[in-house]
Amino acid sequence: MNVSDERLLRIDEVIEPLRVKPGSKVHLPGDFDPAFKTAGLKKKRGVELLDEGITLLAEYQDRLAAQSSEGVLVVLQALDAAGKDGTIRHVMTGVNPQGVAVQGFKVPSDEELSHNFLWRYVSALPKRGQIAIFNRSYYEEVLVVRVHPDLLARQRLPGAGHGDGDVWAARYRDINAFERHLTDNGFRIVKLFLNISKEEQRRRFLRRIDLAEKNWKFSGHDVAERRHWDEYQHAFAAMLSHTSTEHAPRYVIPADRKWFERLAAAAVLVKTLADIDPQYPAVSEKARRDLLTAKTELEQQAAPGVPADPFAAEVAAASGTTGK
Ligand code: AMP
Ligand code: MG
User: Fold this and answer.
1) Which end of the chain, C or N, has fewer beta carbons within 10 A?
2) Which segments of 68-197 does DSSP mark as H helices, in order?
């Protein structure tokens, strides 16, 4: 596809400030502003750009599926009300549902707790040609599980792994190795942390309480988790510091403005697909000959007065000849 260099440069401009430099030490909330947006960009233009991004995504996804050699895993992490569901809904509209799988991860079952911590995520990985979206992911294993030691205790880790300080270092190492394995095997990972401010979360919770049709989105558990805000910020900062790598960089998506959040998330995904630059498979000489044989047979079946090939003029126009 011909995404102009200029267009890609613009995408780079949007996403570069959001990338966590591998090896850097991140502090939250100081290092990333949840209300950030590209300088000079207004909402109206942002929404137009998102539309363009969505069109591009649909085209790329079609090629990704046709090429069927690489896949994409989108990993969404965020605190409650940061816009995970809305981002998935808006960014993936226009994409063929057959090529996308969305998988949410909730409190693990007994069966899941009976396995190693990466087990339940492996079976939901994308196939070649697919995009899989994880709504929460294996990163919960260094987030909610870090904030709530009783969750770690339920995992029944032997010896040192059981609540030992090193358990997090070991998990970052395992996650980085797991992602390395995926990228080496042809799967790109788009890691998005939707970064909402404490005040914006308060507002969105209140909205969910005040508006009857939003009540279902709210649970008392959400305010209970909010009481651990600082511990979560610390866990997110440690996650960002240790798991943004060259092979799978991490992006912090400012979440206080929904329009910019969606645009930024789409931009990272478009950039990833542009890097893959998937191509429709070339048709072999033999397959081409078979197509032409089938074409002749079909043309011979045209009823009197019906054009042999109703698309001939269109094809000729597309290839630059007049067709006459
Ligand atoms: P939600 O996505 O808001 O519907 O809620 C899912 C809940 O599952 C959240 O409270 C998460 O913290 C929790 N959860 C997700 N993954 C894990 C995990 N690995 N261990 C414990 N809790 C988890
Ligand atoms: Mg929730």
Assistant:
1) C
2) 84-92, 110-113, 119-122, 144-147, 149-154, 166-184
Please determine, for residue 324, whether its predicted confidence score (pLDDT) is greater than 50. no
| Per-residue burial over 45-55, b = 16 or more CB atoms within 10 Å of its CB, e = otherwise | ebeebbeebbe
Are residue 100 and residue 202 in the same domain, yes or no? yes
**Is the Cβ atom of 136 under 6 angstroms away from ligand 1?**
yes
The answer to whether residues 235 and 292 belong to one domain is: no
The span from the CA of 203 to the CA of 14, in Å, is 26
- pLDDT band of residue 323 (cuts 50, 70, 90) is very low
Quick check: is 12 in a domain? yes
Q: From atom 11 of ligand 1, which residue's Cα is the shortest distance away? A: 106
Model confidence band, residue 126 (pLDDT cutoffs 50, 70, 90): very high
Q: Which residues surround ligand 2, an ion (CB under 5 A)?
A: 80
Decide if 324 is inside a domain.
no
Determine the structural domain holding residue 135 and report its residue range: 5-276
pTM over 0.90: yes
Q: What is the pLDDT of residue 6?
A: 78
Closest ligand 1 atom to 222 CA: 10
Which two tokens mark 123?
């079976």
The values of phi and psi at residue 322, to 5°, are -80, -20
As for how many domains the chain has, the answer is 2
Q: Is the shortest distance between the CB of 208 and ligand 1 below 6 Å?
A: no
Residues 262, 208, single domain; the answer is: yes
Cβ–ligand 1 distance for 84 under 6 Å, the answer no
Kindly state if the Cβ of 191 falls inside 6 Å of ligand 1: no
3-13 tens-digit pLDDT: 777 777 788 88
